[in-house]
Amino acid sequence: MAMIDISVKILRYQPGKDEKPHWQVFNIAVEDESTILDVLNEIHWQHDGTLAYRRSCRSSICGSCAMKVNGRNVLACETPIHRFGRKLKIEPLSGFDIIKDLVVDLDPFFAKLKRIRPYLILDKPAPDKEFVQSPEQLEQIGESTLCILCAACSAACPSSWPNSEYLGPAALLKAYRFIFDSRDDGADQRIEIVNDKNGVWRCHTIFNCVEACPKKIQITEYLSRLKVKVVENSL
Amino acid sequence: MKIDEARNYHKIDAVIVGAGLAGLRAALEVAKSGLAAAVISKVYPTRSHSGGAQGGIAAALANVSEDSLESHMFDTIKGSDYLADQDIIERFVNEALKTVYEFEHMGVPFSRTEDGRINQRPFGGHSSPRACFAQDVTGHVLLHTLYEQCLQHNVLFFNEFQVLSLLVSDDVSRGLVAWDIRNGGLHIFHARAVLLATGGYGRAWKITSNAHANTGDGVALVLEAGLPLEDMEFVQFHPTGLYKHGILLSEAARGEGAYILNDKGERFMKTYAAAKMELAPRDVVSRAEQTEINEGRGIGGKDYVYLDLRHLGRQKILERLPQIYDLALNYLKVDGIKEAIPIQPTAHYSMGGIPANVRTEVIKDAAGTVVKGLYTAGEASCLSLHGANRLGTNSLQDAATFGRIAGIHMTEFCRENNFAGLPAQPLEVAQGKIDRLWNGQGQERHAPIREKLQENMTKYLGVFRNQDDMLKMLVMIKELQERYRQVTVDDHGDAFNLDLIEALELENLLSFSEVIVEGALARQESRGAHFRSDFPKRNDGEWLKHTLAWRRDGKIVLDFSKGVVIYPQYQPQERKY
Q: Where are the alpha helices (DSSP H) in A96-186?
């Protein structure tokens, strides 16, 4: 462990004060094992208290600290600075309104989640104990349930940028997660929602979401399975 | 303008502070009844730290081997080192199965047995495989499922709001005042019933598994409102914190068979808990680790030991423990399939908190006098379910079960009681906190004060404690509280003022930390997670009782007249594993 000098360029924006976002450079010394979050904390705690960013768990499970570093969407807490060298360029996720500095408005992102009815829909009464679900049936949805709703995928999606109506990869992945859950009876309702030009068909299999996902979820593959399901359902 | 005409005034039946498992479960219960339920959270709900829980949720389903409610009850009592109240544990184990089946019916993707039932794994201090799990992301899937249920049932969410004061007077809760983090500005929440589900207080330590958000805000607000806290000295140190970071590597690793090794490559738990080995309760394992480290048998003589997964094999590690594998790889560049993982004890779970009865009603004294309309559940509360030491996987079960119970009783209360009147100047306390940080003349900054508190709590109030260390800590906390009066913030903006929030959180950390130290100093015995090197034995004759603490005239006042509820069939015994 050693101290190194780094140069950190951050996109700053304070509503009411700044007309538009602008870059600010901080030249600081940090430990070489630091994460991006450690760097932001160092700046915020020691150099400039006005810097704003979201963070909470520090262990890549809460999804608060997704941001763009040197052009890539990452979770700040789990990303060591040595991935990028000594020059860092940190900016908020693209495609969302900036509230302040690195903090963006995720309300539209969460609103889309609600649109796909993200809860088990049952036509049958629940059993006294658990529903029987085989390990193979669980495997269908297992990886999709690891999504932490960090929005890194949506922010990396070229189909999402120009079209705020597009449901986007995270909400569609959630639709997949419920439609392919062996316990669920709500597939028809959800298929109607995603079978739309701003639904699953807006996904052009660009794979940016997969590259951006900190949980390495094969989102594009699941969205493709969803497309097949939609077509099968209409036959 | 009258307060109730103001833009930032909200009149809602049930207001729930905290969007973790306890808060969301309570909100869901109230909303399903048709009453209005609002959740106020300093983070988006899915960011809550319940999502950080990894290994499982306890319930004696007996899906993979024999089990019983009596066994779950006894394990929890013994794990608590006999400080837990047994009426609470009885209610808990009786509701636990229902809680898990209910989660499954909501769609939680539990890992499965070959025949399609909920799978269960062993966990420390539990005498059967009782942990229902979803890989090693159990808290994550429970939290997301509950959030989604709340969306379905139209729970109101006030995301990114920081509560600054409770409106409690004459033993009646009237509501609270919160700061809108995103836009700035104070809001009054006028409620029939308020639930404090604000989580634990582990951020008082430097090495901690807790999230940045876990600053014990609810606990500090209760103290500020003139109400007591209970058993605050009992804080669990988790044995498998990732070295230097403190973040959690689940006990599920040991449940799946992982070893803990010292510098000589020995499974040293054989010296400390020969029967249970690595699956002894957390207090026992953390003490063993710290002893090995203190006696020079840490790795290379340093302050860590190894968690060794290698013999589990690649397939089991990636199937059952993928999160743990990724954390070690990302943070320490250690490949858990090929290398042992450096670990150290990390401040993890707050057994102490806001005292409440089995109905989750907040109480204001040892006699159990209820504060009308005020409830608490989850890690913020002290019922006391976990006593002096919590068993792994009992926390998710606690939060969900007592969250539901809180929701049931809040609904009843709301149906029977009107809104209590607000005080004449409801904003006064909250506004005073903001004004001092914005308009004060002092030159202190919050960060160095917090760092000094956290470093020294780790140093002096850790796994092993003694009077000299704790007296040093007490003096230091008082100095830091003095310095805090001179804190001002750089950021004077309304929008997402992180500077302001962190300064407000620091006031909370400094406030309840004093209670922790006072309680730990007074309790001259060793019980569960509270170990005094100068009083190394449990002393049931003098100390089989709860600690209540108030702040009165700036001083912490302690009361030990609240006894422990003990059933005749579960009398205290020597605790061996």
A: 107-115, 135-142, 152-156, 168-179
Q: Which of A134, A141, A127 is nearest to B101 (CA)?
A: A127
pLDDT, average across residues B33-45: 98
B3 has a pLDDT exceeding 60:
no
Q: Is B282 a catalytic residue?
A: yes
Chain B residues 182-221 with CB within 8 Å of chain A? 182, 209, 211-213
CA distance A136 to chain B (A): 9
Phi then psi for A161, rounded to 5 degrees? -55, -50
Q: Do the chains contact at B49 and A181, CB–CB below 8 Å?
A: no
| The pairing of beta strand B186-196 with beta strand B9-17 | parallel
The single residue of B25, B192, B254, B282 carrying the catalytic annotation is: B282
Q: What distances in angstroms separate CA A72 from CA A9, A12, B33, one per listed residue? A: 14, 18, 45
Residue B114 CA to residue B511 CA, distance in Å, equals 51
Interface with chain A: mutation pick from B498, B501, B505, highest number of A CBs within 10 Å: B498
Query: pLDDT, tens digit, for every residue of B96-139?
Result: 999 999 999 999 999 999 999 999 999 999 999 999 999 999 99
Residues of A in contact with B451 (CB under 8 A): 45
User: How distant, in Å, are the alpha carbons of A175, A224, B30 from that of A229?
Assistant: 11, 9, 37
Q: Between B107, B134, B498, which is nearest A119 by CB?
A: B107
Scanning B23-82 for CB atoms below 8 A from A yields 43-44, 46-49, 51-52, 61
DSSP code at position B42: S
Contact A167, A226 (CB under 8 A): no
Nearest CA among B412, B67, B23, B384 for reference residue B234: B384
Per-residue confidence in pLDDT tens, chain A, 235 aa? 799 999 999 999 999 899 999 999 999 999 999 999 999 999 999 999 999 999 999 999 999 999 999 999 999 999 999 999 999 999 999 999 999 999 999 999 999 999 999 999 999 999 999 999 999 999 999 999 999 999 999 999 999 998 999 999 999 999 999 999 999 999 999 999 999 999 999 999 999 999 999 999 999 999 999 999 999 998 8
A116 to chain B: which residues are within 8 Å by CB?
A: none
Residue B216 has pLDDT above 50, yes or no: yes
pTM: 0.97
Does B444 contact chain A (CB < 8 Å)? no
State the Cα torsion A53-A59-A62-A64 to the nearest 10°.
Answer: 10
Closest CA of chain A from B220, distance in Å: 19
ipTM of this complex: 0.98
Contact yes or no for B105 and A137 at CB 8 A: no
Contact call for B104 and A128, based on CB within 8 A: no
